[in-house]
Amino acid sequence: MLPDVLTVNAGSTSVKLFRRADGRDLPPPPDLDAALASADEPAVVIHRVVHGGTRTRPEVLDDAAVQALRELTELAPLHQPPALDAISRCRQRWPSATQIACFDTSFHASMPAAARTYALPARLREWVQVYGFHGLSHAWATGQARRAVPGARRVLVAHLGGGQSLCGARDGHSVVTTMGFTPVDGLVMATRSGTIDPAAVLYLTRHTGEDLDKVLESESGLTGLAGTGDMRAILDRRRAGDLEAELAIAVWRHRFLRQAGGCIAVLGGLDVLAFTGGIGENSAEVRALVAEDLGWFGVAVRADDAGLATADGSGPAGVPGTADVSAAGAPVRTLVVHAREDLQMIADAEALLAERR
Questions:
Q1: CATH number for the domain including 213?
Q2: CA–CA separation, 9 vs 134, rounded Å?
Q3: Are residues 179 and 84 in the same domain?
Q4: I want to staple 323 with a disulfide (CB 3.0 to 4.6 A). Which of 41, 169, 311, 357 is the partner?
Q5: Taking all residues of the chain, what is their mean pLDDT, rounded to a whole number?
Q6: Are 84 and 209 within one domain?
Q7: C-beta of residue 97 within 8 angstroms of C-beta of residue 44
Q8: Could you tell me how far CA 179 lies from the centroid of its own chain?
Q9: Using alpha carbons only, how large is the chain's radius of gyration in Å?
Q10: 104 is catalytic
């Protein structure tokens, strides 16, 4: 167990910090500035980095490693820069601390070649492949699901927040995911389009003067459909009869069902559906909509589903931060898993450092 560790999870608009010393969770600093100003230097600093390229495991950071990660910025333009900025500041402030990067892409390195490969000429496949993202969250939720439901082999994790993705894991290993070469691919998200015909992008490139990077990353998804990426607001408007909101939810549900069905087919069935992320954890309405659409496969949630609000802190089978919201008798168990990327980062870093001793 690491004696003194700080995790730094730099998102596109905020930084989440988690501190643990001597096995005890400590109150986190309010922000990175406060952490850097403190005289209390951590022994190990672990950074979440969205894109690690083909890396399959965490990496101790030195100048060469940081430069290599900088070269991947174009593939994750919203998240890579703030992570690199946090890494630079932490390395400068704490030069004696061990700095480690954990990658959101690494969990998906276990996907078979067929799932990682696009049908492109060999000269292009060297550059373009399915990387997958949200890997730290998917890894944590998969592990929690398998602890909560012993014997579960086929787990589908729905990470639903501002960014959204599905991951099908078999025996704890990712075998299929909905994000691809970049985090724009897959489900309809708050501001990202999700999957779109590449020929449509080429058409827009030829016939409009639009900044398509901006359009697909920041102006599409729920925002493009309903004028806001706030799922709660859209659901409220839908209940009030707003047709724009109704269409947005219908499109979101269609894309979710289509891609979840594909993941379930790849898995060869389903034992557990696990919701995580801000929407996945907090919206019983979204979980009910998904269960309705996947009811054909045995997914059903309790009528009184309150998710983690009903958890006693131990969760099913003594698993903390996990709630079982399955309807009685449902053949597929449905769980709500509190996202703890920080704990996954610590576990991964501990394994790396143990191997280096």
A1: 3.30.420.40
A2: 12
A3: no
A4: 311
A5: 95
A6: no
A7: yes
A8: 10
A9: 20
A10: yes
Give me the torsion for CA of 12, 156, 262, 204, rounded to 10°.
Answer: -10
Q: Within 10 Å of residue 108's Cβ, how many Cβ atoms?
A: 29
**Which stretch of DSSP H or E encloses residue 84?**
helix 80-93
Residues 209 and 95 grouped into a single domain:
no
Phi-psi region of 194 (alpha: psi -120 to 50; beta: other; left: phi over 0): left
Return the amino acid letter for 267.
Answer: L
Please report whether residue 352 resides in a domain.
Answer: no
Token pair belonging to 232: 């709660």
What residue type is 173 in one-letter code?
H
Contact call for residues 303 and 326 (beta carbons, < 8 A): no
Find the mean pLDDT for residues 310-331. 84
pLDDT tens string 155-172: 999 999 999 999 999 999
Domain for residue 113, yes or no?
A: no
Range of the domain at 337: 138-342
- Residue 347 falls inside a structural domain: no
Q: How many domains does the chain have?
A: 2
Nearest to 228 by CA among 212, 204, 255, 252: 252
Which secondary-structure segment (H or E) carries 154?
Answer: strand 154-160
Confidence of residue 311 (pLDDT cuts 50, 70, 90): low
Which residue from 331, 191, 355, 354 is spatially nearest to 271, judged by alpha carbons?
331
Among residues 4, 62, 104, 236, the one annotated as catalytic is 104
Amino acid at 357: R
Q: Which of 74, 98, 86 is nearest to 10 (CA)?
A: 86
Same domain for 45 and 174, yes or no, is no
224 belongs to a structural domain: yes
Q: 264-310, pLDDT tens digit by residue? A: 999 999 999 999 999 999 999 999 999 999 999 999 999 999 888 76
Q: What are phi and psi of 80, to 5 degrees?
A: -65, -45
Cα within 13 Å of Cα(51), Cβ side: 26
Look at the block and give the residue holding tokens 């954890």. Answer: 281
- Check whether residue 144 and residue 70 sit in a common domain: no
pLDDT, residue 312, reads 59
Domain final residue, candidates 53, 86, 103:
103
Residue 167 has φ and ψ, to the nearest 5°, of: -140, 125
Taking the C-alpha atoms of residue 262 and residue 255, their distance in angstroms, rounded to an integer, is 11
Domain boundary among 46, 76, 103: 103
